[in-house]
Write a structure and sequence with these properties.
Strand content: 15-25%
CATH topology of the largest domain: Zincin-like
Number of strands: 10
Helix content: 40-55%
Number of domains: 2
CATH architecture of the largest domain: 2-Layer Sandwich
Radius of gyration: 22 Å
Largest sheet: 4 strands, mixed
CATH superfamily of the largest domain: Metalloproteases ("zincins"), catalytic domain
Number of helices: 6
Shape: flat
CATH class of the largest domain: Alpha Beta
């Protein structure tokens, strides 16, 4: 099967291919690569392209079906809970639901939910950081809650940044990201020394990192990113 594609040429040495969220196939190729070489490369990737197109179409369909409103189930600390209207002024998390003020439209519910996610993430992480600083002997100067869509956390020098999307995942997953970013204040890369340090305080980091991939799918399918 042949696929139409957008071609970008540059001073790169190899040919690469990506499928964009709008299902556009984009090829990056060296200046001297021939059309035949590029077509053959795309042809060899045909099966992979088809899988990506199916995945993107399925994801887009799920996004269209997912609407934030009363009754919608969302993730909070790794658990699916419904949004329930209640006679309250601020959003509140219970064991089995997220309570939300009555009389809001879909966009208002979404914005209040995001604010609640941010506030909860800030509170949880600020409570956990002192414990993990004492445990690891590492420290930081400041932490912020961001709206990052692709990075769960990051470290700039000794400043830590955590995406509010983290609050959808289990507490042990959030704690892993806290340890991960704290460790970056000592090791500014992902060397073996870095992972050895992480392993001391989070032996199951591989399992927890895999869990984050699941929530990346959730973010994509529900239109959070």
């Amino acid at each position: 099967m042949t696929h139409n594609y957008i071609l970008n040429r540059s001073r790169r040495k190899t040919i690469s291919l990506t499928v964009k969220p709008d299902c556009t196939v984009e090829v990056n190729a060296p200046l001297k690569a021939s059309t035949k070489q590029i077509d053959e490369f795309v042809s060899k990737k045909s099966s992979w392209i088809e899988k990506q197109l199916v995945y993107i179409k399925n994801t887009n369909e799920k996004r269209q079906k997912f609407v934030i409103e009363y009754g919608t189930q969302v993730y909070f600390f790794g658990k699916r809970v419904p949004i329930v209207a209640d006679n309250i002024r601020k959003a509140m998390l219970t064991e089995n639901s997220v309570l939300m003020p009555q009389g809001l439209d879909s966009e208002e519910i979404k914005q209040k939910l995001i604010m609640f996610y941010k506030d909860t993430a800030r509170e949880y992480i600020s409570n956990q950081l002192p414990y993990y600083c004492a445990l690891t002997g590492l420290n930081y100067s400041k932490f912020t809650i961001s709206s990052a869509k692709t990075n769960w956390g990051s470290c700039t020098s000794d400043r830590l940044h955590f995406s509010w999307h983290l609050i959808m995942s289990e507490k042990e997953v959030i704690d892993y990201v806290i340890i991960h970013e704290l460790t970056h204040t000592k090791h500014h890369n992902h060397s073996s020394a870095f992972w050895n340090e992480v392993s001391k305080y989070c032996p199951e980091w591989k399992k927890l990192r895999t869990r984050l991939r699941f929530y990346s799918e959730v973010l994509s399918q529900e239109g959070w990113c």
